[in-house]
Each structure stands twice: as C-alpha cells, then as structure tokens.
Design goal:
Helices cover 49% and strands 8% of the residues. The protein is an alpha/beta fold. The chain has one domain: Rossmann fold (3-Layer(aba) Sandwich), CATH 3.40.50.
C-alpha cells in the first residue's frame, strides 16, 4: 500500500470516528445533565411538619418556605398550622381562649416536628410556656425562636411608647450593630436558659434571621446586592415590614436551619418579585441563599454547622 493510500485510509477512519462521536456526545451530555437532578431528588431529606407562631415579621415565612422545600425536591414538607396575631408577644398566642388556632392541640398530639416562634421583646412568658408543653407532650419537637431585625432599627419596645421613624437614607453599621447586639444577647441567653432548665428536651434553637438581614443591609450599602440600591428597598414602612427580597431571605434561613442544608443553587422562588431583569434577580437570589446559609451556620445556637 502506498503512502497516499494509507493517508486516505487513516483520514477516512478519523472522519468516521468524528461522526460517531458527534452522534454520541449529545446523548452522553444529556445523560450527565440528568444525573444531578436524579441525585438531588434521591438525596432530598424527608419533609417535616411545621407549626408557626408569630406576628407580621414572621407570618409570611411558612408559605415561602413551602415553595423552597418543593423546589429542593422535598415533596412531603407540611405546614400543619399557624397562630397569627399582628404585633404579638408569644404569650398572646398562649392565652387565646379555646386554643383558637389549635397550637396546643397540635403540639399535644405529637404531630409537630418543628415549632417556630417569633417573639418581639423579653420578658415573654409565652416562649417558656410552649417549650414546657413541648417537653411534656412532644419532646422530639425542635423549637426555633426567631431573632429578627429590630422594628424602627432600635432596641426600644415600641409597644410601650412612640418611637421616632428611622433615617434609612443613611447607613450607620456600628449603630445598627450595637442596637441589635443587645437584643440578640437577650434572646441567646433566654434560649440557653430554656435548654438548661429542660435538659435539652425539647431542643431549643435560635433562628438567626436578624443577623442575615444585617448582612444584606451591609451588602446594599456596599453596592453589592444585585437589584437593591438603597436600604428602603427592603422595607415597606418605618417599622420595618419586609419587601419580597427580605421575606425570601428569612425563608431561606428557616430552610437552612430546619433541613440542615445549604439553599445555594436552588431556583428563584415565585415569591422573589423585583423590578430587576431575570439575570439580576437570579444573582440576588443566590446572594440571599449565601447570606442565609452563613447566618445559620455561624450562629452557635442554630443547631447547624457548615458542610
């Protein structure tokens, strides 16, 4: 066989191989792309049954948490009930006549895996009342006590007197941090006391929502929060009721804490509505996920550590 003939034969063989690979590669790529989805579904944890007690800085959370859990492949997540009272202390929920929202009945039946509570200020006898009930009737239930962002940006009980509206046009991180740290310290100490008093049964944890919100506000001030240009983009009023991004951040904190896994990489939830374009919203969504995971894993009383 001449050199020219051998060259033509070799060339033809490479062409045939290339055609075969061209047909095979798309199928192979499709199969590999499907692997993570199957793996994520297979690794999805069992859903939990949640009961929530709170006010307007908490009541939006259960519905968004359900959306997030569904997007994570957790099909059997359940919000089995909620006690909702605007501007409430936990004791107001405890004192409701005839167990209006069935909070005590749900706990006593043993059907609650996670109880979430959002007090405003201490003292609040309702927190311990519910913890005591859980310890007696459903000690396997986890109790999450929310540390949230302060109304009006100050650690002053607005229920006892008028508080001046905050100036959110400027950003004073040291002042915000100082105001929140005193509040955080009080909640942390109360949760430690409850765990000591009830010997860790039930296990009581801190939901570090406020820390995540402060981190997001710092990102906004640094121009590093996609689609959010100013502090007021997070709030609908002076007291601090949340807009969509802040609501989603809170829900990501609860997802991370309840399921012990990072929300980073989950799709944009329907609740995250902004005026930004799709790409910017996706970037904001990832930032919210990262901030939530950082807040939960860095708090010593959250019960969750980084992977």
């Amino acid at each position: 066989m001449t050199k020219l003939a051998r060259y033509r034969l070799t060339f033809a063989w490479f062409i045939s191989l290339g055609i075969a690979l061209a047909w095979a590669l798309p199928a192979n790529i499709a199969a590999r792309a499907a692997e993570p989805a199957k793996s994520a579904a297979a690794e999805a944890p069992a859903g939990v049954r949640v009961y929530s007690i709170g006010h307007s800085f908490h009541n939006f959370m259960p519905a968004i948490l359900a959306e997030i859990a569904k997007s994570a492949g957790i099909a059997d997540h359940q919000q089995i009930g909620a006690s909702r009272i605007g501007g409430s202390l936990v004791i107001q929920h405890w004192d409701l006549p005839d167990d209006k929202f069935k909070s005590k009945a749900s706990i006593s039946s043993g059907s609650v895996d996670v109880l979430t509570m959002s007090p405003i200020y201490l003292p609040d006898e309702g927190i311990e009342n519910f913890v005591r009930l859980v310890s007696e009737k459903s000690p396997r239930t986890r109790v999450l006590v929310q540390e949230f962002w302060l109304p009006f940006d100050v650690n002053v009980n607005f229920k006892k007197g008028k508080v001046p509206p905050p100036n959110r046009e400027s950003f004073d991180l040291p002042k915000l941090t100082a105001e929140h740290e005193a509040y955080f310290r009080d909640i942390d100490q109360h949760v430690r006391m409850l765990n000591d008093k009830y010997h860790g049964q039930p296990a009581v944890f801190v939901a570090p929502v406020g820390q995540a919100v402060l981190a997001l506000r710092e990102k906004i001030a640094a121009g590093a929060a996609p689609g959010l240009k100013q502090q007021t983009d997070l709030f609908t009023d002076a007291i601090g009721h949340p807009t969509a991004p802040l609501k989603v951040l809170v829900a990501y904190c609860y997802f991370a804490q309840i399921y012990g896994r990072s929300p980073v990489g989950l799709p944009v939830p329907p609740a995250l509505k902004t005026d930004a374009d799709e790409a910017t919203t996706a970037k904001l969504n990832r930032l919210l996920q990262e901030l939530a995971w950082n807040a939960v894993t860095r708090h010593p009383l959250s019960g969750v550590k980084a992977e």
